TrEMBL record:
<protein>
    <submittedName>
        <fullName>Aldo/keto reductase</fullName>
    </submittedName>
</protein>
<comment type="similarity">
    <text>Belongs to the aldo/keto reductase family.</text>
</comment>
<feature type="binding site">
    <location>
        <position position="112"/>
    </location>
    <ligand>
        <name>substrate</name>
    </ligand>
</feature>
<dbReference type="InterPro" id="IPR023210">
    <property type="entry name" value="NADP_OxRdtase_dom"/>
</dbReference>
<dbReference type="InterPro" id="IPR020471">
    <property type="entry name" value="AKR"/>
</dbReference>
<keyword id="KW-0560">Oxidoreductase</keyword>
<dbReference type="GO" id="GO:0016491">
    <property type="term" value="F:oxidoreductase activity"/>
</dbReference>
<dbReference type="InterPro" id="IPR044500">
    <property type="entry name" value="AKR5G"/>
</dbReference>
<dbReference type="InterPro" id="IPR036812">
    <property type="entry name" value="NAD(P)_OxRdtase_dom_sf"/>
</dbReference>
<feature type="domain" description="NADP-dependent oxidoreductase">
    <location>
        <begin position="29"/>
        <end position="263"/>
    </location>
</feature>
<dbReference type="Pfam" id="PF00248">
    <property type="entry name" value="Aldo_ket_red"/>
</dbReference>
<feature type="active site" description="Proton donor">
    <location>
        <position position="54"/>
    </location>
</feature>
<dbReference type="InterPro" id="IPR018170">
    <property type="entry name" value="Aldo/ket_reductase_CS"/>
</dbReference>
<feature type="site" description="Lowers pKa of active site Tyr">
    <location>
        <position position="79"/>
    </location>
</feature>
Amino acid sequence: MVKSIHDRAVLHNGVKMPWLGLGVYKAEEGQEVEQAIQYALDAGYRSIDTAKLYENERSVGVAIRDSGIPREEIFVTTKVWNTDQGYESTLAAFQESLNKLELDYVDLYLIHWPVAGKYKDTWRALEEIYRQGKAKAIGVSNFNVSHLEDLMTVATIKPMVNQVELHPRLTQKELLSYCKDNAIQLEAWRPLVKGEILQEPVLQKIADKHDKTTAQVVLRWNVQSGIVTIPKSVNESRIRENADIFDFELSAEDMLAIDGLNENKRNGADPDNFDF
């Protein structure tokens, strides 16, 4: 059972990944993202999730260096964007990300979306980056079971992580089961649905029972389901609130009630049908 912000999931290659991380999507390069990361590190977070698309990798690197926390204690994720997919272009994009971050390696490098006709060549590049030790782990993002099965036909290294939209309105049980069976760690982006779910009466009832907020209940549901979670915020009090999920436990009844909120409803794009 996950009982501390310092607890980590163990990926299939032995790399340890924090259960809770800070997402920095749409956090502005410069002071906004640097300040948010400082708040998070002060609150005990040790995982930061960025991407080329977010245009803030440079500031993520600055914040990590300025923190004074040893590099090996902070788990850094970034991703290759769709327009850079393909073998050579992914290798070049990765180097560009590394240069912006000013790091010797990243802890996790992901394919951001399953671009048809390209993600297999992209994966080949990720395997090469991994073999060179420039990424401690490699994985994918927004891959459905069909994409994973297709990728497995050519992969010589199995993805360690699959980062997807996942929240009580989109519980992704089939995908979670598949990933568990194949030792792929599932990770949730937008776990709080941009706050849209926080007024849900079922969540409020559970939150009242545990003297917690509905956001804390959802994030606790994530980690108790065996899912790494990366809520995005630049607000200090919210960043701290999101970290305060390790001193209580949801009952089996609570977990089932939250699972029951599923509507297979996406807030973001559909991995089977996107045009970017």
